[in-house]
């Protein structure tokens, strides 16, 4: 993801917590292979659907064609090319994964930082809230949040559309029109982002508890810096390694959550696709008489490989940067 | 000790209370309502329905009345499945989920601990690499991929087990494995990390210096300490496994309790959801309490704090 581009900028901040962390990571061959594969996957999922011919995404007579010929991955029940569907589904899954992970990290970091830095009653209260949220089934929140967010976001986008229409801004109108069928994606990003911040909050809090006893924070206090400045200028840079590590580890969790919701028919909706939706469709296609194995197998391979490399990379980052 | 346990117990009760109240309010306040599916109701009819199910008035009043009934053991009727009480529905489905989840729990905890400990003992050797790659793969696979895959290989191609259904022991094997795989992998990773840390400690060096066989050093001395993080994960693990999984129940056609979670939320069947969440939360909170005590027994340094 974008982490590759931001590594040089982070190296100084990382140096404070883990000397030579990035050098150690660069020597880790598994991590580098994983990073390479991820970059390849992202490029394929984002450029593939743009570059491939349009006929691949159109329904056709050729339904349930086994892999071979023009369609390397075969076709689905509507005669659409599965190769195209896997790539465009990957695009949606990766966008949801990355964006929702970023949302959850922002919430989790802020909550954890406040709890750890202020300590005392604030900390106790926040951590009890986190405990309560931990003890409630997550699927409850996911479904309720989707129901609650779906309508407002649709009408918000619709409102912008009419506004752009009356203002005569054609480019904005067109781009909004193309986004509208994907409003569910936006809902999922917000919903999953609001769900997955609990672990992050706990980890950041723990880290802040250690950091705030160190001398540079005491020095900043002596210089009379405000609490907000200490939190964002002194603590936050030292949390980057933790945040980056857990970003790579949260993305797979979010992608799995999204695929679970899509499997239940509550996530991404047709004609948009995601890996979870394709897998759900494919799992229903397994039977003895006509085993259309390619329908579940290719999306499963793409998704598993991506999540596996993300987890590999996250593990390597955690080891290299010595984050716990 | 007893006093501390009592305070801990009270705080867990508070968590249970807040969680259940919050569930009620969240579902009631979310868009839609449980009576929408029943033809077109007029406003008066809707109000009558709400009165019938004690869902009229402000939300806090509704919750208070629900709690009043619940503490007396009345979990009310399901709003959608009208002829059944919540208790009856859960009494039918929970034993199924408990059986399946219990077996999956044994598989995941015992299998995970063994795999993790063996991996740590052979750190960075081939068995370790293989086991850990497998574990990573297992937590990267959703249950609706492993499930159909297991069915395809062991039921359809090899014919060792039935495809699905519930009633005989052979029907439990595949869903239990499917349920246990991701959790077992998580336990194995947890166990390996903790074991590696413990194997670097002084008392292990002492044990080796005494000339104890390696098997006894890892299997007895190190294992006792290294298992602690796993023990603290057992509470949530059991609660998650015992209350059932929608996906596994769906794939293997099992009449368990997991489906009621999702269906009751989709149908806004608040009372059924309250019942299901009550079971889940009680299990989670109760098991965490047990784990706390167990922790003190296992590790004398901690006791209950």
Topology:
The complex is a heterodimer of chains A (324) and B (305).
Chain A: H1 3-17, H2 21-27, H3 29-51, H4 82-118, H5 120-134, H6 138-167, H7 170-179, H8 183-195, H9 197-211, H10 215-222, H11 227-263, H12 275-284, H13 294-321
Chain B: H1 2-29, H2 43-52, H3 59-71, H4 86-121, H5 126-140, H6 143-157, H7 170-199, H8 202-209, H9 214-226, H10 228-242, H11 246-252, H12 258-266, H13 270-298
Molecular structure report:
- The complex is a heterodimer of chains A (324) and B (305).
- Chain A has 324 residues and is mostly helical.
- Chain A has 13 helices and no strands.
- In chain A, helix 3 packs across helix 13 (294-321), helix 4 runs antiparallel to helix 11 and helix 11 (227-263) runs parallel beside helix 12 (275-284).
- Chain B is mainly alpha-helical and 305 residues long.
- Helix content of chain B is 75%, strand content 0%.
- The longest helix of chain B has 36 residues, at 86-121.
- The N and C termini of chain B lie close together (9 Å).
- The A-B interface holds A 128, 131-132, 134-137, 139-141, 143-144, 147-148, 151, 252, 256, 259-260, 263-264, 266, 276, 279-280, 283, 286, 288, 291, 293, 296, 300, 303-304, 307-308, 311-312, 315 and B 15-16, 18-19, 22-23, 26-27, 30-32, 136-137, 139-142, 144-145, 147-149, 151-152, 156, 236, 243, 246-247, 251, 261-262, 265-266, 273, 277, 280-281, 284-285.
Mean pLDDT score of chain B: 82
- Quantity of strands of chain B, as a count: 0
Q: Which structural class fits the helix and strand makeup of chain A?
A: mainly alpha
The fraction of residues in strands of chain A falls at under 5%
Subunit organisation of the chains: heterodimer
How many whole angstroms does the radius of gyration of chain B measure? 23 Å
Mean pLDDT of chain A comes to 79
Q: Considering DSSP H and I runs of 4 or more, what fraction of the residues of chain B is helical?
A: over 70%
Sheet of most strands of chain B: none
How many individual helices of chain A? 13
**Sheet bearing the most strands of chain A, described?**
none
**Strand-residue proportion of chain B:** under 5%
Q: How helical, in percent, are the residues of chain A?
A: over 70%
Name the chain pair with the biggest interface and residue counts per chain.
Answer: A-B, 39 and 40 residues
